[in-house]
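Reviewers of the previous submission asked for a worked example of the structure-prediction workflow described in the proposal, so we include one complete record here. The input consisted solely of the amino acid sequence. No template or homolog information was supplied to the procedure at any stage.
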Amino acid sequence: MTVALYARRKDWPLREVLVRLRHSKIHAQDCESCETKEGMLDRIDSEIELVGNLNDEQRAKLLEIAKKCPVHRTLTSEIEVRTRP
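From that input alone, the workflow returned the following structure tokens.
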């Protein structure tokens, strides 16, 4: 939604945004960029398809914007889960 709103505001010819996510578990020791080095980690692989007559610069900017959306920021931040009775 963030990407589509940005493209609409810029009047860019974006027709559709398709996002595919794949979830898996990996050994922490196999993740070079992760701070955690023990146990298992969740990995989410994301594929974003931008449909429309966009140039390379527009596509790059929209992918940059995708990393700033609220969902992406939540998934890449530290998360605390609190359960209350």
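The chain has one domain: 2-76. We consider this example representative of the routine output the project will generate in years two and three.
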